[in-house]
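Structure Section — protein described below
Tokens — whole-number codes for backbone shape
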Amino acid sequence: ALAKAVTALGYDIEPRKDGLFEIVQVPKDVVAAMSQRRAAVVEKVESWGSDSRRDRDRAALTTRQSKQRSS
């Protein structure tokens, strides 16, 4: 269902071995950066010994790097 919706929006998809898919138009470096981000969140939640939605949201905030302000 999601793959059909993505292609209906005009994106190309590429199947992966795990049954999921990648959107061809998303650069590989962006996918890699998001995968590293997800790993950091999962690691933080596991260190707390929990896996609730609230803890995942909290972990996403606590593991995020602060934004750099340009002058």
